């Protein structure tokens, strides 16, 4: 092991100081002339207090993420309200975000409202 890679008491103290200052593992490695993996391993073996991820910090500081005006289709379709007691007649193109179901109360034993039952269940009424 070269002289610069030995973990002397002085270098361990420097590592602890830089860690306490909040420098990232990469920054500490750069200042001490060793790889970030060497720093990560030593920090772990020294049992220094864990710090939260800088990625999660930036996400928290950004605040709540606003819903975009136009959701992707698959996410938009998740918001469709559906119930067995409501008419399941589709309305619109299911490949677009304007897709929905009728939603009117159903006829007993049928999946559709009265208007859509007439359209769905067609039979010859004049006997021909």
Describe, in plain words, how this protein is organized in 3D.
By secondary structure, this protein is mainly alpha-helical. The protein folds into two domains: 3-51; 73-120, no CATH class. Helices cover 41% and strands 3% of the residues. It is built from six helices and two strands; from the N terminus they run αααααββα. It has a two-stranded antiparallel ribbon. Helix 2 (25-32) packs across helix 3 (36-46). The model has no long low-confidence stretch (mean pLDDT 80).
Topology of helices and strands:
Blueprint: H1 9-20, H2 25-32, H3 36-46, H4 54-61, H5 73-78, E1 90-91, E2 100-101, H6 114-120
Antiparallel strand pairs: 1-2
Features:
2 domains, 6 helices, mainly alpha, 128 residues, 3% strand, rod-shaped
Short structural summary:
The protein has helices at 9-20, 25-32, 36-46, 54-61, 73-78, 114-120; strands at 90-91, 100-101.
Overall structural domain count: 2
- Share of residues in helices: 40-55%
Rg result: 32 Å
| Largest sheet entry | 2 strands, antiparallel
As laid out across the biggest beta sheet, the strand order is 1-2
| Assembly classification | single chain
Q: How far apart are the first and last residues' alpha carbons, in Å?
A: 98 Å
Overall number of strands: 2
